[in-house]
Structure formats: C-alpha cells, structure tokens
Amino acid sequence: MTSPHLHAVILAGGSGTRFWPLSRRLAPKQLLSLTGDRTMLQDTVLRIAPVVAADRTWVVTGCDVADEARRQLRLIGAGATVVAEPVGRNTAPAIAVAAHRLIAADPDAIMIVLPADHAIAKPEAFRECLDHASAVAGNGYLVSIGIVPRRAETGYGYIKQGDALPESGRREGGRGAFRVARFVEKPDRVTAERYVGEGGYLWNSGMFVWRASVILDELARHAPGVSAAASRIAEAMSSGADDTRLRALYEAAEAVSIDYAVLERSTRVAVVPAEFGWSDVGSWAALDDVAVKDERGNVLSGRVVDVDSQRSIVYAQDRVVATIGLNDLIVVDTPDATLVCAKDRAQDVRKVVDALEAQRAQEHIVHKTVQRPWGAYTVLGEGPGYKIKWIVVNPASRLSLQMHRRRSEHWVVVAGTARVTCGERTYDVRTNESTYIPPETKHRLENVDPQVPLEIIEVQNGPYLGEDDIQRFDDDFGRK
To answer: How many CA atoms lie within 13 A of 164 on its CB side?
Structure first.
C-alpha cells in the first residue's frame, strides 16, 4: 500500500483526564509514554510511516500543545504537518477541515483517520487492514475499522454488521467488508454479553478510511452547518488569517462527533472487521492489556520497590515508591501529585480532575517540569511575588526575543555559557555568573554550544508571574 493519494490524518486533540496525575491539560495522554519509550503520538506516526509519506501525514491538535507535538515529531524525524486548533470542536469539524486541505492539494485524496492515543500490538496486521479498507473506500464507502470483540466490554461503542459488500471481496487472510446495520452506544453488561454471544457486533475503534471528496459530500448532505464552517476555516488558513480570526471561526462551528454528524445517518458506511491487538488505552486499568506484567500480574514502572502485591499498577517518576501487599490497586506518583485508587474505579479519575478544576488548582493543567521547543523548565518553588525555575536550554537553541510587563528575572548560570540579549546589549554569562533582566525589557537567552546543554536558575519577582505575561518579537519556532 503505497498509493500517492493516501493521506493520514491523526487526531491528537483529546485531554486524557483519566490518566491524571501523569496527564495534564498541557500534557495529554497522546503526548505521554505509557506503553513504551516513545509517546503514543510518536508510535502512531511511526506505525503509519511505512505506507504514508511524511508530507502526506497531518496531526490535528490544540494550540496549547501544538509546540510539544512538533517537538516530539522532530525527535523521531517525522515531517508531519501539525494543524493547531484554537478551540476544540470535536471530530467532525477537525476531519472536515483536514479534508478540505487535502482536497486542495490532492483531489483524489484518500484519508486514513486515526486517533493518536491508541495501542496496537500487531502493526503489520494493522497496515494490511488499512490496505483492505482503502480499497473499499475507493469504491465510495465511508469505512470504519471494527475490532472483533475479545470480551464483553461496556466502555466501547459497537457496530452491528449488515450484509457483505460483494464488490469488496475477501482478500487472502482478510475478513471482507460489510454494510453497517447500525451504530450502538456503550451498552450495559448484560447487553454487551449478548452482543459477544450473538456475534456480528464489533467494537467501534474510531478509525476510518474514506475519500476526502466523499466525506465532504456526506457532511454537506447530513451536517451542512459543519460543512460550511469547515470550508470557511480551511479558506482562512490558506489565506494566512490571524489567530483572532481563526478562533472566531472555530468558536462558530458546531462541536459534534463525526459518528453523530455523518456515520449514523449516511447510507454509504461500511465496516471492515479487524484483529490486530487494539486497545484505546482509556484509563490506567487498560495498562493490564498493553503493558508487561511481573509474575504476580503487576505492572510496575519507574522507581518501584514492591513486596507481595498482586494485579496492581504502580507508576513512579523521580521518587522511590514502595508498595507492600497491594491487591488490584493503582498507585501513580509524580513530583506534585499522587493517585491511589482501586483498579475497578479507574474510570472515576476524571472526577478528581473535575474537582481540581473547580478549585482552580494548577495540578490538572501543567506539570512542575514543562517541555518547550528549546528545552524545558522545572518550577522549584514559588510564593507571593516570586517564582524559582531550573531552565535547561538544548545545545544550539534559544528562547524567543521577548519581554515581560510585570516581572523581572535574575539568571544564575550553573552549567554551560549563556549568550544573553538584554535591551541593546548582547553578552556572555558563564558558569557561576549571573545577570539581571528588568521588567519591560526585550531579552533573549541562547545556548551557543552545539553539544552541551545550558542550565540556569531563574528567580522571577513581580506582582504577576503567569506564563501568559510574555510578548514575543522574534521566535525560531514560529510562536506568537
């Protein structure tokens, strides 16, 4: 499957609140390493790379995390295009905007639509399934990838298979394709068991393949408001509209899923049954399906010392986490928050996030360590009128030329040499030296060493220390 008309649209806009405290608003599930050394976004892009070229791969995500998505793609050498949404409006507008942009570049484009936060154990079987689905989509169908159920699952929607599509045929080792009789919402336990017992029901994976022209035709027919809004957004993007204009257009678009807007209404929907070790990794408990376990059924990650626990999930970061005699529990420790819950209550972690949001707490928004395109910073301490950060600047990288209205900054170099722009001056600050940046002064921090990271301690002082008190004048990463 190497068609020049094949494009991948990866949806990376979810928040993943059920993976708190590891996931945050600015570090959602798809940008985390939950199932291996790479993040879920990186795995998704690399999984599709053998069949879709980098210049035909699109990642749709939110503006707040677009820089981090780009950074992660650079780390794996992926040249995918990142489309940053100023406001999330669910999957239908995201897919529609992407389809318009694909059509402009390739009128015969076939779209593979993939969530960025799924795990797939058998990537070759996955790609073979997409090959078959692409052939069916070439006949004008909107193709959903349906997962053959492994158990009675109440956390997924289901697809009821209808009649086989004779024109799609059965490829060698494949399972053919079928019309969709109906989509079914997440069932209760009894209903789920009946579905599995009867057969002919598939889990709705949220993965789709179709011609870009066909999905746009069906959107115009069944969701004309979404279609018109997406057309205006795509046109504005092409003409270089500013952030304010794009935000207004997104806010005016209806927030609706592609399932409800089109798939549940169209007569052109087909399903391809698949078995390639799929999991949506929807909560901490889902690691049971995708992570390596010890001899007692535990999933242990990080600096964990365990004695006699069973069937538990323990995740540690910087600190040692010691557990003794746990049964069916989840323990997740991060530098600023710790979660302990029963495994069968993993879905309720989102309630903790809701409570933190109601308290206006920062622990659901951002970690103490925040990745940036140029490096990272860690908040070491803060109080009324001050904040202390440890800043690491990657070799041969620099921050934007910027200014803060309401705070000053004092920089102490602890490793490397900093090239500092402060007002009209540019000068070097070496290890064990410091410099002061007054408020309302243009400044820039740069690491000119091509190999060694620059580390500084920054002390901020002022009446307001929020990250939004920044005005950028020049930036290597295109941020405004």
So the answer is: 7
Closest by CA to 57, choosing from 32, 31, 76, is 76
Q: Which of 290, 294, 291 is nearest to 306 (CA)?
A: 294
Q: Measured between alpha carbons, how far is residue 286 from residues 18, 189, 344, 416 in Å?
A: 11, 18, 11, 43
Chain centroid to Cα 220, Å, comes to 28
- Amino acid symbol at 341: C
Q: What are phi and psi of 458, to 5 degrees?
A: -110, 130
Alpha carbon distance 54, 49 (integer Å): 7
Across 6-25, average pLDDT: 93
| Beta-carbon contacts of residue 402 (< 8 Å; ≥ 6 apart) | 442, 443, 444, 470, 471, 472, 473
- Residue 172: per-residue pLDDT: 44
Q: What is the DSSP string of 289-343?
A: HHS---TTS-EEESSEEEES-BS-EEE-SSS-EEEES-BSEEEEEETTEEEEEEG
Cα dihedral across residues 231, 237, 241, 244: positive or negative:
positive
- Write the pLDDT tens digit of every residue in 205-225: 999 999 999 999 999 999 999
Q: Please, which pLDDT band fits residue 123 given cuts at 50, 70 and 90?
A: very high
Instruction: Give CA–CA dist 161/181, Å, rounded.
Output: 6
> Tokens 């069932």 label which residue?
187
Question: Are 232 and 101 contacting, i.e. CB atoms less than 8 angstroms apart?
Answer: no
Containing 445, the helix (H) or strand (E) segment is strand 443-447
Tokens 């005016």, residue located:
252
The answer on pLDDT for 175 being more than 80 is: no
DSSP summary character for residue 185: P
Neighbours of 354 (CB within 10 A): 12
Q: Closest Cα partner for 234 from 249, 213, 224?
A: 249
DSSP conformation class of 285? G
CB atoms within 10 A of CB 124: 11
52-70 core/surface letters (b: 16 or more CB in 10 A; e: else): beeebbbbbbbbbbbbbbb
**Identity (one letter) of the amino acid at 58?**
W
Contact 64, 14 (CB under 8 A): no
**What is the pairing mode between strands 201-211 and 178-184?**
unpaired
